[in-house]
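Hello again,

I reread your note about wanting to compare the complex against the isolated chains. To keep things tidy I'm splitting this into two emails, and this first one only covers the full assembly. Below are the input lines as submitted, including protein chains and any nucleic acid or small-molecule components. They are followed by the predicted structure of everything together. The single-chain runs will come separately.
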Amino acid sequence: MLKELLNKSSMKSPWIYHINSGSCNGCDIELVAVLTPRYDAERFGFKLTGTPRHADIVVVSGPITSQSKERLVRTLAQVPEPKCVVSLGSCPKSGNVFKGSYSVEAPLDNYVHVDVSVAGCTPKPEAIMEGLYKAAQILQEKREAMNK
Amino acid sequence: MMLPFLKKAVYNAFTKPSTEAFPCPEAEGLGEYRGRIAFNQDSCVDCGMCIKVCAPMAITRTEEKVEGGKNVTRTFDLTSCTFCGTCADFCEEGSIKMTTDYHMVATDPKDLLVSGVTFREDKGTLTCDLSGCIFCGLCMRNCPEGALAVDRKAKTWVLDEAKCIQCGKCIGKCPKKVLSFGPVK
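Full-complex prediction:
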């Protein structure tokens, strides 16, 4: 009974944790724009948390610099299951224009399974909304599979 | 005192919310927005200019030998693209277009690849009728691969066969129409 209630409530509040692994800040400000009243992702229960331990969805931006790689892996390990990883923009998936640099360790797929990738440089807030919505659905599927 | 707020409250009660609806209606006024790449494989001459100018190396080209030529596949990786539009600017044939489609969300990375296959016929070696050639060098300047060396003073016209991709751009640019593809070996 309580478990059911918990499930239902967590379905309606997928919390986001945002990791910037050396991003140029373009994707980051667009993600913030998604949370503002104009696009208002919070009406679906998305909320930006300050700690990975409270997060359901992890949004990663940036080409994963060597300095941030270890911190990224450590932070991702702290996110409780079920979790959903969203890559924001071109950088985490491929390294974008920084590809081949001595200090860039993209792609993100080497460290964690990426559930949803939002392409664009930077993606439009509308696209990020779609990505987050998809991520929430995947999260729900994962949660149902876990509870079985 | 309360009146200004009351006025606003009543006004807002009868207006549409300023929040964008979800799923978002198609954004308007995108103008020159550069989104998903559209590639027309039929008009592509396989000059390779897009690959050369692409800063994040998002374009790959693979070829497969078939009878009478080869199949060339060009793939644009949208998860690697910066959407700078340089490939579209440099494409002389206009085969690459930046569309305003910004819905680029995928769970499968394959959905974010744009590719096209072109059949390239083996046309034979490029030959120049030296009796009509004026050694202007237009062919050399328009060769995307740098396969031609024309010396105006020495009156020489040399083709590097290994570099020639048989795009036929030089034939179109030649003012004297002395260039042609020779017999297929």
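For quick reference: Chain B touches chain A through 27 residues (CB under 8 Å).

B.
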